[in-house]
Records
---
Amino acid sequence: MDRRNFLRTSAGAAAGLTVMSALDASSAKATPPRLLIDDVLSQKYPFTLPALGYADNAVEPAVDAQTMSIHHDKHHAAYVTNLNKALETQTALQGKTLRELLTGLATLPDGARNAVRNNGGGHANHAMFWTVLAPNGAKAPSGTLAAAIMRDFGSVAACTAALKAAGLAQFGSGWTWLVRDGGGKLTVRGSANQDTPITDGGKPIVGVDVWEHAYYLKYQNRRTDYLDAVLGALNWDTAASAYGA
Ligand SMILES: [Fe+2]
C-alpha cells in the first residue's frame, strides 16, 4: 500500500470519513456528509493529517494533481507536524480540541500562541479548503445557503466576485473566506498567513487558499486565473452543509 492509500485508508477507518467522494455523492444529498473541517476541529493532540478523501487529480483542471499532492502531503502535513511539536511540552493544552485552541488563542501561553495561530490555523484552514474542493458536488448553491447568499449579496455571482476580490486584495500569503456570523449573516473577508475566521467566532463556509504554494506550479503569478478556476470548481453541497440550517 502506498503512502497516500495508507493515509486514506487509515484516516477513513479512524474518522469514519468525511468529505463526499464520487461513490457517495448521490446518497450524500439525502444525508449530509460529515465534513473534514468538523473532524479536524474536533481533533486533540496529537493531531493527525486527514486523508484528502479523493484523488489528487479529482479537481483538475482547476487544481493540478502535482499541486494537490504537494499541498496536502507536504504543506498541510507540515502544519500538523509543527502544531504537535508546539504542544509537545504544553501538557495543559493537550486536552483541548483544535477549535478550543483557535477560539482561545488570546488565553494561550506566550510560548505556544504564535505556533498554534500559524500551525493550528494552517491545519484547520487546509481542512476547510479540501472540504469545499471535494469533487462531484453541486455547482451552484441551493436551499438555505442560496437564500442567505441572495439576501446578503444579491446574487451568487456577486458573492463569488467578492470572494475573488478579497483573494486578489490579500497582500502576500493568506486566504479568502465566505463566513457565517453568529446571526447567520454571510460576509466575505480575507485573512493573512494562517489566520482563520474561527478565532473570531466566525464559521467558514468557503475558504480558498491564496498562498503561492496553492497555485504557482500551474498558474505562476496569475492568481486571478487560479481564483476564477477554483471558485468555479467549488462544491456547494459541502458549503451548504457547513452553513447548516
Ligand atoms: Fe496552503
---
Amino acid sequence: MGRLTGKVAVVTGATLVDEGVGIGGAAALLMAREGARVVVADVLQEPVERLAARIRSEGGEAVACHVDLRSESEIVAMVETALRVFGKLDILHNNAAAIPRADADIVTMDTAVWDLVMEINVRGTMLACKYAIPHMIKGGGGAIVNTSSGSGLAGDLVRAAYGVSKAAINTLTKYIATQYGKQGIRCNAVCPGGTQTPTFKASMTPELEQMLLRHTLTTRICRPEDLANVVVFLASDDAAMITGEVIAVDGGLLAHLPFFADFMQLGAPTAGNM
Ligand SMILES: NC(=O)c1ccc[n+]([C@@H]2O[C@H](COP(=O)([O-])OP(=O)(O)OC[C@H]3O[C@@H](n4cnc5c(N)ncnc54)[C@H](O)[C@@H]3O)[C@@H](O)[C@H]2O)c1
C-alpha cells in the first residue's frame, strides 16, 4: 500500500524533457509510485506525454492532458479528464507557472508581461481550484498543494510580476483552506528556493549556484525530488491536520538574517554584554 493508494491526482506543469523532470514531473512520478492515478497536464504536448509514458513504464497509471492555463475551457476539460478516465479527483497540485525573462522591475515593467504572469499563475491556479473543489467535495474531500516560491515571500531585483503572483497564490491558499475546510478540503503551498530543475539549470552559471549555496543553510541546494517529497506528504492523509500553510522548502534560504553568508566569511563575529 502506498501513501496515495486509491487517490486520483491532477498535476499541472508536469513534464519530462531530455534534461530530466521539474518539480511537477518529480511530484507526479512520486505520486504514482505511492499508488495514485495521475493526470499530468501541461501546455507542452510532447514533454507531458513523455512523462505519462514514463509513469506507465514504471507500472503506474497516468494520462497526459494538454492544458493552457490561460483558457478556462481547457482548465474545465483538464478536471473532467480526471473524472472521465479515473472516475474522481482527490488531489490537485497546481505547479505550472509562467516565468518570463522579460519580467524585471516595476518601472520598466511591460504591462503585457505583468498581465500574462497574473493570467497564468494567479487566474489559472484559481480556476483550477474553482473547478476541482466541487468534485473533491462530492468525493468526500481532497487536498490541494500549490507551488509558490520564495519570490512570493521576499523582494528581489527582478521578476516582480512573478513574485507578486506567488504572493497571491499564498493568500489564495489560505482563502481556500478557510472557505472549504469544513467540507473536507485542505489547501497548502510549498515555496521552493532555487531548485535544480531543467528550467532553473538553464538560467544558472556555476557562480550563481555557488552564491545560492552560500546563502543556503544546508550542504546542498534543493532538487526536484526534495519538493516532491513534501508535496506528496501534504497531499497524503499523513498531513490530515495541516491546512492553510505556506511552507518554505528551500534549505533554510529565507530562515536566517540577511548577512548570514557574510558572517560565515568573516568567521561569525559575536557580541554580548556578559
Ligand atoms: N526551480 C526553481 O528554482 C523554482 C523556485 C521557486 C519556485 N519554483 C516554482 O516551481 C514550479 C515548477 O518550476 P520548475 O522549475 O519545475 O520549472 P518548469 O519550467 O519545469 O515548470 C513550469 C511548467 O509550467 C508550464 N506552463 C507554463 N505556462 C503554462 C500555461 N499557460 N499552461 C500550462 N502550463 C504552463 C511549463 O510548460 C512548464 O512545464 C513553478 O511554479 C515555479 O514557479 C521553481
---
Amino acid sequence: MDTSTTPQGFEDLVGDRQVFFQEYFNRKPLLRRGALDGRTRDLVSVRQLDDIIALETVSPAYLRIAKDGRGVPGKAYTRTVTDRGAALTETVVAEQVYELFRSGGTVTWNALNHVLPAARHLADLFAHTFACPSEVVAFLTPAGKDGYAPHHDPVDVYVLQIEGTKDWRIWEPPPGRRADKASHRPEDLGPPAIETTLRAGDVLYLPYGTPHAAAAKDQVSLHLSVTVEPRRWRDLLADTVQHLLQDPGFDGYPHLADPATPDTAATLGALTARLAALLTGADTAAETDRLRETGRARAGAGRPREFERLASADVLAPAALLRRSPVPLEIGPSDGARSALLVNGHRLNVPDAVADALRGLQDGRAVAAARFFPGVDEARSVHVAQGLTRLGVLETADRTRS
Ligand SMILES: [Fe+2]
C-alpha cells in the first residue's frame, strides 16, 4: 500500500509485530511510552480541528459532545442551513461548540479519516493490517474534565495521545468478551487494573470489550482513537456463506405456503445439502485470501488517487512503462480487424494489434508507451496508451498498488 505520506508504520505504534500479536493482540492492553515522540503533529493538531469546524457546513453526524459523562443533544450546537426559505442541511455551529467546550464538554470527531488525509492514511494502515474496517476518532477534552464515564467499546482501540495529558483507568475485560458498547458503574468494576497518565507521543492499545475511563489533567487533551472493528469467526463465516449463496442454484423464490408443502420442505433439504457441499468443498486457502481482500477493501481501506492518475495519463512520456491494471478487462473475439474491449462498463473497439498487446501484458509485464501498439509510429502508440490509461485498463508500472 502507499504509505508515503503516512508518518507511521504499524510497528512504530505497537512495537515488534510478533510480540504484539503473540502477547497483546485480542488479549490485554499494551502501553508504549513515547512511541510517537516528536511526530504527533504530523497526524493532527488542535489547530486543524479549529479549521475543520470552521468549514462552512459540518454535518452533525461527524461531531459528538459529552458533558459530565453524558451526551449533549445535537440541537444544542446545530442549526438548519436554509436557502430562500428552504431547508438545505443541518450544520454544526462553531460558536456553540466552543461554548460547550469552554464549559467542560468533550468534543469528539467521528470518522476524522473522512476529512483529514493524515487520519485517512492511518485508517488505511489499520484496515490493511487487520483486514477489518477502521476509523479514526479525535477526542478533545478541556483541562481537568472527565471525557466519558467508564464504558467499553465494541471495537479494538489504539489511543494516540497527541497533545496534553490524560489520566486513564483501565479494567480487565470481563469474562465473556462483549462486542457491544456499554457503560459501567465504577462500583461494579472494582479497582482498575491499570491507572496511568498518557502524555503526547504515548500509544495505548485496548482490546474490544476492555472497560476504560479517561480524564484530562491540567491542560487541553487531544487524542486519536484508531478503532478496528473485529471480524470474528462468525462474521467471516457469514461472509463465506453469503459469498457461496451467490450460486445461481439459490435464485429461486418459493411461496412459503402455510402449512409448508412437502415440496417446499424437500427443496429446502436439497438446497441445504447443496450449500453444505459447497462449504465442504471450498478451497479454504483461497477463501482466506478472499476474506482478507474484502476486509481491506471496505470503507477506510486505500483507494487510488484518481485525479492524480488521470492527470498523469495526460502527460504520459513515450518512455513511461505501462502494465495492465487490476481492473477486470474482457477482450471479445476479433471481427477480422478489430476486437471489442469491455472495461468499467465501457465497450470499445480496438485494432487487433492492441488487443494482442493487452493479452501480452496479462502476465504482469510492462511496456513503454511508445512501443505498446506495434506497427504504428510512437506518437500514435502513446495516444492509444493514454486512452487506455484514462479508462483504467493500463497503469504506470511505478505506481504502488494498494
Ligand atoms: Fe471508549
